[in-house]
Amino acid sequence: MWRRARGDWLVSGKDLSPEAYEVYRHSASHLMASAIERLHPGVRFAIGPPTQEGEKFGGVGFYYDLDMEHALSPEDLPRIEEEMRKLVAADLPFEREEVARGAAIALFETRGQDYKVEMLREIPDGEPITLYRHGDFVDLCRGPHLARTGEIRSFRLLAVAGAYWRGDETKRMLQRVYGVAFPDEESLETYLRNLEEAEKRDHRKLGKELDLFSIDERFGPGLIFWHPKGARVRNEIERFWYEEHFRNGYDVLYTPHLAKERLWEVSGHMSFYRERMYSPMDIDGTNYIVKPMNCPFHIHVYQSRLRSYRDLPLRWAELGTVYRYEQSGELHGLKRVRGFTQDDAHVFCTPETLAGEIGRVLAFTLHMLRTFGFDAFDVYLSTRPEKSVGSDADWEAATAALRAALEESALPFTVDPGEGVFYGPKIDVKIRDSLGRSWQCSTIQVDFNLPERFDLSYRGGDGAEHRPIMIHRALLGSFERFFGCLVEHYAGAFPVWLAPEQARLLPVSEKENAYALRVGEKLRASGVRAGVDDANETLGNKIRKGREERIPYLLILGGREAAAGTVSVRKRGEGETGVLSVDEFLERIRGEIERRETGLVPREEKRSNR
Ligand SMILES: [Zn+2]
Ligand SMILES: [Zn+2]
Question: What is the Å distance from ligand 1's center to 47 Cα?
C-alpha cells in the first residue's frame, strides 16, 4: 500500500488515493514536529491528527498539539517553515522500527515526552508498537510514511491555537499548530488565494465593516443583534419568503416562544433532545421551557379542531425563533448560534399524498435557493437507522417518495444509508457558495413519530380515523446562518433587490443638495431604498465611501444633471454607465428589483467563458 501510494503521489500529482493522502499528511506533520523540536528543544508532543483543510484543492491538512514554555505566535510560523525546508533539503529517510512497549516507554521517558508515555501506557497488550524516525526526531506512529523528507513538496503553516489535552478542559492547555501540504506549488498557491478570499469575505469581519449585525459576550455568546442594515436585508428576505409561501399554498402561523415542560415530555424532546434545551423557568409554580423547535406548537393548532381528509394537506409555515444549547467553543458568528429563526414549516398529509407533497417541497426549496444565486448543491438522502420507529411499509414508502422527488429534480444525490432520524427518512440540501464551500441549509424530513405521540388523526373518506404523516422542512435553514452564507457568497455586495441601500445620491457640491434631496424623495416614494450623501466632502470621498459600503448604484448629481433633471449613473462593478432621466433610472432599478437579479454569473457561463 505504501509503495503504491507513494507512486500515485509522485506520478499523478493531484489525483491521490486516500492512502496516499494519509501517507503524505503524516509525513508532513512529522516534518513540522521535528522542525519545532530543533527550534525549541524540550518541546513535548501530544497528538497530531489529520484535518480536512486544503483537501478540496488536492492538499492535506494536519495539526500537532504540543506543550512548551515559549508561546508560539503567527510570527513563529515562517521560522518553523524555514526549518522544515532545511529538513526537506537534507532528504532524510523515514525509518520504521517495531519495538516492545517497555523499550518505547523508556525511550520517550529519556526524551521527556511524557504525553507519548501516557499514550503508550494505554496501548493494549499485544498490539505492535512502531516508531518512525528521521534525523534526530522520533515519534510514536502507526505509519506508513513517505520514504524520505525530500518527497514533501509544498507546505504552509496556517495558525496557532489553544487546545486542551484530550479535549478535556480540566486538563492542561496545549498549543496547536495547523498546517497544509500540497503536491505542487501551484495547488498551494490556488489554495492560499482561496483562503485569503474567504478571510476577506468572512461574515464576522464584513458584518462589522458593513454594520450588519453584532454579537456581544456581555449580553450572551451566540445571541445575535441585527443592526438596521442587516435587518433591512433580512426583512427583504422575509417579505420574499412570505410571498412565495402564500403562492405555494402555505398558511402562516405565529406561536409562543415557550411552553410548559409537560408539552416537551409528550413530544419526547425531554428525553431525546434534553441536552440541547435550556433549563426550565418557573412561572406561577410551573416549569416552562423556551422552545428548541416549533413542531409541537403546529401540532397543537392541528389538534384544535377535527380534521377531515378533505382538509389535508395542511401546509403551515412559521419564522419560528428557537433556542438551542451549543457549547461555547462551537459558536461561530452567525453560523453556529444559540438563538435563531428557522424558516420552518410542517405539512400534514395523508399517506396517499405524501409523495406529491415531498416533490412540491423539494421544487420549492430549489426555487428559493436559486433565487439567492446558489446554483450548486450537495444533496443527501438519509435512510432508516437501526433504532427507529414506524413500520417497514411506512419507511419504504417515505424513502421511495423522497428518492422519486430527487430523481424528478434531476439533481445528483448521495444516499447515506442508516443516517435518517429515528422518526423518518430525510433529504438534506447543502448549498455550495461562490468559493466552493458547502453549507447545510435545507432539510426535508418525514415524521411518523410525532403524529403517533400526539395521537393525531383525520377522518378518512371511509368514515374511519386515520393517522396523518408530518413533513418537517426548512428551506433556508436558519435566517442567521443563511444570512452569514449570503454575506460571504456575495462578499458583502448584495444584489440590488437585497441591498440595504440600493442607490445613493451624491451631490457634487452644496448647490445640488436640494436637487439630491428631491430625487431621493422620489426614489423612496417609488419603493427604492435611496440615501443622500450631502456631507461637506469631496465627490471623490463620497464615491469611495459608497463603494466601501458596496452600494449598487451611486448617482452623481452635478450642475448639468440638476438643470436637466437627470442622474449620472455609476453601477457597482461596472463603473459609469451613462446619464439617465430620473424616470429612466427608476424604471431600470425597479426592473432589476422585480426580477431579483443576483448580478452573479451563472456557473455554466463561467465555465464556457474559460
Ligand atoms: Zn506518522
Ligand atoms: Zn418540525
Answer: 10
pLDDT tens-place string over residues 565-576: 999 999 999 999
- 18 CA distance to ligand 1 centroid (A)? 15
Cα–Cα separations (whole angstroms), residue 178 to 52, 162, 165:
11, 11, 16
Segment 480-501, tens digit of pLDDT: 999 999 999 999 999 999 999 9
Cell of 245: 409561501
Digit-coded pLDDT (tens) for 438-475: 899 999 999 988 999 999 999 999 999 999 999 999 99
Q: Are both 327 and 394 inside the same structural domain?
A: yes
Extract the C-alpha cell encoding 120: 503508550
* Residue 124 pLDDT exceeds 90: no
Q: Which of 21-30, 82-91, 331-340 has the lowest mean pLDDT?
A: 21-30
Q: Which residues are catalytic?
A: 295, 324, 342, 344, 346, 426, 472
CA 344 / ligand 2 centre spacing (Å): 7
What is the grid cell recorded at 468?
A: 396523518
**Both 580 and 472 in a single domain?**
no
Enumerate residues 6+ apart whose C-beta is below 8 A from 282. 288
Is 213 found in the same domain as 318? yes
- Give the number of the ligand closest to the Cα of residue 24: 1
Residue 55 lies in a domain: yes
Cα(474) to centroid(ligand 2), Å: 9
C-alpha cell at 242: 412570505
The overall average pLDDT reported for the chain is 91
Confidence class of residue 49 from pLDDT cuts 50, 70 and 90? confident
| Ligand number, closest to the Cα atom of 255 | 2
Helix (H) or strand (E) holding 44: strand 44-45
CA of 445 to the centre of ligand 2 (A): 8
Q: What is the pLDDT of residues 283-302, one digit of tens each?
A: 999 999 999 999 999 999 99
Give Cα separations from 424 to 325, 397, 452 (angstroms).
24, 11, 12
Residue 320 has φ and ψ, to the nearest 5°, of -100, 120
List phi, psi (to 5°) of 306: -75, 140
Which amino acid does the sequence have at 459? R
Rounded to the nearest whole angstrom, what is the distance from the C-alpha of residue 452 to the centroid of ligand 2? Answer: 14
Residue 18 has pLDDT above 50, yes or no: yes
Determine contact, residues 378/345, Cβ cutoff 8 Å.
no
Shared domain for 219 and 183, answered yes or no, is no
Mark the residues whose beta carbon lies below 5 A from ion ligand 1: 26, 141
> Are residues 71 and 180 both part of a single domain?
yes
- The pTM of the full predicted model, rounded to 2 decimals, is 0.83
- For residue 293, the ligand closest to its alpha carbon is 2
Domain around 533? 503-594
Q: How far is 176 from 190, CA to CA, in rounded Å? A: 25
Can you give the pLDDT at residue 3?
A: 35
Q: Which ligand is nearest to the CA of 143?
A: 1
